[in-house]
Amino acid sequence: MSRKSDLAPPRTGLRHFSFAILAGSGFLLLAMAWPALAQSNLAQAASPTPEPSLSAIIPTEAPAILPTATPSSLGGLAQGSILLGLNAAGYQQLAWYQPGTAQLSGLSAGDWDDAQPAASPGGGQLAFTSNRSGNWDLYVMELSSGQTSRLSDDAAHDGNPSWSPGGDWLAYEHDLGGNLEIFMRPLDASVDPVPLSNHAAADFEPAWRPGEQQIAFVSARSGLAQLWLLDLEQSGAQRFQRIAASPRAQAVPAWSPDGRWLAWSEQEDLTWTVYVLDMANPGTVRRLGAGHNPQWSPSGEAVLAELRDAQRSYLTGYDLNGGLALAPQPLPGPLDGLAWGPAALGTALQAEAQRMAPAAASAPANPGAELSALDGVLAPSAQLSSAAGPAFDLLRQRTAQLLGWDALSSLDNAFVPLSGLLPPGRGQDWLYTGRAFELHAALQPAGWMAVLRENYAGQTYWRVYLRTARQDGGLGQPLLAHPWDFTLGQPANEIPQGYWIDFTALAAAHGFERPAALDNWQHYYPGTLFSQFTYRQGLSWEAAMLQLYAADELAGLLASMSP
Question: How far apart are CA 83 and CA 516, in angstroms?
Answer without folding.
Answer: 32
